[in-house]
Specification:
2 copies of one chain form a homodimer.
Chain A lengths: L2 H11 L3 E5 L16 H13 L5 E4 L2 H4 L2 H18 L4 E8 L3 H14 L4 E4 L5 H4 L9 E7 L5 H4 L10 H9 L8 E5 L6 H8 L5 E3 L9 H8 L6 E5 L1 H4 L7 H19 L1
Parallel strand pairs in A: 1-2, 1-8, 2-3, 3-4, 4-5, 5-6, 6-7, 7-8
Chain lengths: 270, 270
């Protein structure tokens, strides 16, 4: 999906919500466990219920890999279902990959050529040749970790160099030499509050993928106050607060309600 | 595998070689393509041929994920085969994972509880809570990226803070508060040459996993001169130069010869 198409979807649907498919077999409603593929059955129901209120889905790979072969099958099924049934939704493989050049190229093949997702999250620690193999496909995106939502984000990302630039700023600066705002986004955690002002000084026009509202405690209003651009420039993710809102047979209906509540807040903020 | 057991294996076999199983369907000998699982058939032959000359195997996950379900199956088969047939070899899942705490915990379950590997490579960018969920299992290891072998290692890993410490040094320092030399190793590329002296000032006793000899051009002698400890303290990986040394039906025999050559050099260096 191109930047132009993404912005058009946001404007049409009045939402910039991404639903995180962090699907854990221990947390899904018990009645689904008799399905042939409980994880996919859960995802399909969540997707069908929430699709009108979001513009993106983000499966986190860890939740699928932990089930081995069966998990990988659930992931492939989920992405294929999304591609066929909801072709206008943006699909993010939250993989946080990054390796030497020839290895990153294999990951890029996996996610873009085999699975056909729109974007992959990538960790920047290994530098340029770990990131660029994910680039160069039209309408496909790298979402590079910049300032993450977790407590450990303070351990290294805020370390300041002799010129006064924090590490996350170095990542934002250098990576703009590798790709532009049509192929690169950045992960900035909703928990970072006013730091979005600083982020926007480095990347005034790029889209930001923002996890951390809901279970992690970030504020949607604050993210928009300091991070929104005139083209929106935000994809805000919520996972647990939507998909596990209800543990009964009514789970999909309640998930839709939660997603709709967020969509209405987003409509007002746009 | 505990640190004591690892050191005993190195001393007994007079080698600290790790064979990287970066198995690419496009690079394996053509006659294997008629096997039901060509990747596993290749790995099994390479393992049987090289086992006397190495103490570790390191499948890089990208090479398996890029084949989707079939690739994941080849990986599980390879690890199960190693576990049963060569229980004294150290198995490293080269995954370079790292995510927020609850997600890293899922990856840890995947690699340690489901697959039962000995170690996982982890990227440090997201800090403490992205790393610690991989810790706390006896005989299981985190191998944290410190100073990698690729050109992009210069982009961020060498950035110096106001106190004069490079980022890789901060990673080495801080992570020692999370685990000790019995559960943590570090990735340092063989291409970094004399930088091993600086690494050893931060971590005099830890094991280092050293990729980058062979195809990437690092020197085994230099790595040992500046990086070896009195307990060895090194696991040196070679992938392409061993496993793709010969493209014919003779591939396993030639791989064994290459591995044996390196083992003999290591014997002399120990």
């Amino acid at each position: 999906m191109t930047r132009k198409e993404l912005i058009a979807e946001i404007q049409k649907k009045r939402t910039f919500l991404c639903v995180g498919l962090d699907t854990d077999i221990n947390k899904i409603p018990k009645h689904l466990l008799s399905e042939p593929d409980p994880i996919f059955a859960f995802n399909r129901a969540i997707i069908d219920a929430t699709a009108p209120y979001c513009i993106a889905y983000k499966p986190n790979l860890a939740f699928y890999e932990c089930a081995g072969l069966a998990g990988w099958q659930s992931l492939e099924q989920t992405i294929a279902y999304l591609r066929i049934t909801y072709p206008h939704h943006f699909i993010i493989a939250d993989a946080k990959r990054g390796d030497i050049g020839n290895t990153s190229a294999m990951y890029a093949r996996c996610f873009f050529d085999q699975m056909d997702v729109d974007a992959v999250t990538v960790a920047p620690y290994m530098g340029q040749d770990s990131v660029t193999p994910f680039l160069g496909r039209n309408g496909k995106w790298v979402i590079l970790l910049a300032l993450t939502s977790n407590p450990g984000s303070h351990d290294f990302q805020l370390i300041t160099d002799t010129g006064g630039t924090p590490l996350f700023g170095q990542v934002l600066q250098k990576s703009q030499q590798w790709a532009d705002a049509d192929n690169m986004m950045y992960v900035v955690g909703a928990t970072q509050g006013r730091m979005f002002e600083q982020i926007r000084r480095f990347v005034p026009h790029h889209f930001l993928l923002v996890p951390g509202i809901g279970a992690q405690g970030g504020s949607l209003e604050e993210v928009c106050r300091y991070g929104m651009t005139d083209e929106c420039g935000l994809i805000v993710n919520s996972s647990r607060a939507i998909i596990y809102a209800d543990p009964t047979t009514d789970f999909a209906h309640v998930a839709a309600e939660r997603a709709q509540e967020i969509q209405q807040q987003m409509d007002a903020l746009l």
